[in-house]
Amino acid sequence: MHQLRVNAAALPGPADLAALDRAITELTRLNPVPDSATSDLINGRWVLLFTASSATLRQASSATAGASPSPSGAPAAGAGGSGGGGGSDLDRLLTPLQLANDVAYRFFYTYVPVLAGAAVGARGASSSGPVKARGNFQVFDTRAGKVENQARFDVAGRRCCINVNGSATVAQVTPGSPRQRLRATFTSFDLLVDGERRLSLPLSLLNPVGYVDTPYLDDELRISIGDKGSLFIAARDSSADAS
Questions:
Q1: Per residue in 111-129, pLDDT tens?
Q2: DSSP string of the chain?
């Protein structure tokens, strides 16, 4: 079975992205909870395993579908290897600009979740540099109409957390379609250092609004697509400090 590396600092390879796109397509087809936005299963704390642009996954899947594998099973020349020629379609699609955009995307989801709309973030980021990420989380409480984004990180040995708080409502995309969309309006921003609130600001002037669709949901896994064209794969956080 093809295994996708998640929580890795390096960008996934083309084959990883294509395999992920296929797996997501199959999972959404088998989705056990069609009305995910109104299901109690969506409530709780989630930690992000992987995030990327949906367009990047589709491009990788389309490009690799047209590639011809070499007899040995290794990548064909021009398909990400060192072979000659003008390069594969994937080489042209995943340009340095596209890759840079994806890196920037992950940065904002890790450190400034409010800039990314309905974002969560990535656990397992690199420990190099002054800021050491300890994971980003999203908390849903649809019964109370609340959503919260949390970015946890260490700075100079101090444990910090950015909380972006908001309201969440179920939105119907089209009449008769499964209810999978949650619309969030972020209202306040808190900075906690070693568990103490050091800063609290309203976000009414920025009025950050976003939505997230969840085409796959079960007891442990959530696959969502945000309004910025982003895809999230998140796991339910069952760690001891989840509360």
A1: 444 333 333 333 444 445 6
A2: ------S-SSPPPHHHHHHHHHHHHHHHHT-S-SSGGGSGGG-EEEEEEEEEEHHHHHHHHHHHHTPPPPTTSSPPTTTTSS--SS--HHHHHS-HHHHHHHHHHHHHHHH-GGGGSS----SS----SSEEEEEEEEEEETTTTEEEEEEEEEETTEEEEEEEEEEEEEE-SSTTS---EEEEEEEEEEEEETTEEEEEEE-TTT--EEEEEEEEE-SSEEEEEETTSEEEEEEE--STT--
